[in-house]
Amino acid sequence: MFLARVYVTLKPAVNDPQGLTVMGGLHSLGYETVEDVRIGKYLEIRVDTEDQAQAENDVAGMCDRLLANPVIEDYRFTLERIE
Question: What is the pTM of this model?
Protein backbone atom coordinates (compact mmCIF):
# COMPACT_ATOMS: atom_id res chain seq x y z
CA MET A 1 0.00 0.00 0.00
CA PHE A 2 1.15 3.54 -0.73
CA LEU A 3 0.29 6.93 0.68
CA ALA A 4 0.18 9.60 -2.01
CA ARG A 5 0.57 13.21 -0.93
CA VAL A 6 -0.84 15.37 -3.71
CA TYR A 7 -0.25 19.12 -4.02
CA VAL A 8 -2.40 21.08 -6.49
CA THR A 9 -1.52 24.71 -7.15
CA LEU A 10 -2.59 27.39 -9.56
CA LYS A 11 -0.30 27.93 -12.51
CA PRO A 12 1.95 30.99 -12.09
CA ALA A 13 0.08 33.00 -14.76
CA VAL A 14 -3.31 32.49 -13.06
CA ASN A 15 -4.54 35.20 -10.68
CA ASP A 16 -5.08 34.03 -7.10
CA PRO A 17 -7.61 36.31 -5.34
CA GLN A 18 -7.62 34.10 -2.21
CA GLY A 19 -3.85 34.39 -2.02
CA LEU A 20 -4.07 38.17 -2.33
CA THR A 21 -6.65 38.28 0.48
CA VAL A 22 -4.45 36.18 2.77
CA MET A 23 -1.42 38.31 1.91
CA GLY A 24 -3.38 41.45 2.80
CA GLY A 25 -4.38 39.87 6.13
CA LEU A 26 -0.79 38.95 6.90
CA HIS A 27 0.35 42.50 6.08
CA SER A 28 -2.34 43.91 8.38
CA LEU A 29 -0.99 41.66 11.15
CA GLY A 30 2.46 43.17 10.68
CA TYR A 31 4.07 40.55 8.45
CA GLU A 32 5.28 43.07 5.88
CA THR A 33 8.03 40.77 4.58
CA VAL A 34 5.42 38.54 2.87
CA GLU A 35 5.73 39.18 -0.87
CA ASP A 36 3.31 36.62 -2.30
CA VAL A 37 0.80 33.98 -1.19
CA ARG A 38 -0.63 31.26 -3.40
CA ILE A 39 -3.50 29.07 -2.21
CA GLY A 40 -3.64 25.40 -3.25
CA LYS A 41 -5.02 22.02 -2.27
CA TYR A 42 -3.39 19.18 -0.37
CA LEU A 43 -4.76 15.64 -0.53
CA GLU A 44 -3.70 12.33 1.03
CA ILE A 45 -4.74 9.23 -0.88
CA ARG A 46 -4.08 5.63 0.13
CA VAL A 47 -3.57 3.37 -2.89
CA ASP A 48 -3.92 -0.35 -2.22
CA THR A 49 -1.26 -1.90 -4.45
CA GLU A 50 2.25 -3.25 -3.96
CA ASP A 51 3.37 -2.06 -7.40
CA GLN A 52 4.90 1.43 -7.17
CA ALA A 53 4.66 2.04 -10.93
CA GLN A 54 0.94 1.24 -10.83
CA ALA A 55 0.45 3.55 -7.84
CA GLU A 56 2.26 6.38 -9.65
CA ASN A 57 0.21 5.77 -12.77
CA ASP A 58 -3.06 5.66 -10.83
CA VAL A 59 -2.37 8.84 -8.87
CA ALA A 60 -1.29 10.72 -12.01
CA GLY A 61 -4.53 9.60 -13.68
CA MET A 62 -6.58 10.76 -10.69
CA CYS A 63 -4.91 14.17 -10.87
CA ASP A 64 -5.34 14.47 -14.64
CA ARG A 65 -8.98 13.38 -14.63
CA LEU A 66 -10.42 14.83 -11.41
CA LEU A 67 -8.17 16.39 -8.80
CA ALA A 68 -6.54 19.16 -10.88
CA ASN A 69 -7.85 21.37 -13.65
CA PRO A 70 -5.03 21.14 -16.21
CA VAL A 71 -5.99 24.48 -17.77
CA ILE A 72 -5.26 26.51 -14.63
CA GLU A 73 -3.57 24.14 -12.15
CA ASP A 74 -0.35 22.18 -11.79
CA TYR A 75 0.10 19.18 -9.52
CA ARG A 76 2.86 17.14 -7.99
CA PHE A 77 2.80 14.18 -5.65
CA THR A 78 4.99 11.95 -3.56
CA LEU A 79 4.48 8.29 -2.76
CA GLU A 80 5.39 6.59 0.49
CA ARG A 81 5.09 2.86 1.06
CA ILE A 82 2.99 2.21 4.15
CA GLU A 83 1.74 -0.90 5.93
Answer: 0.87
Low-confidence residues of the chain: pLDDT under 50:
none
Cα separation, 1 vs 58, whole angstroms: 13
CATH topology for 2-81?
A: Mth169; Chain: A , (3.30.1280)
For residue 83, what pLDDT is reported? Answer: 87
What are the extents of the domains in the chain?
Answer: 2-81
DSSP one-letter string for the chain: -EEEEEEEEE-TTS--HHHHHHHHHHHHTT-TT------EEEEEEEE--S-HHHHHHHHHHHIIIIIS-TTTEEEEEEEEE--
What gap in Å lies between CA 36 and CA 20, rounded to an integer? 8
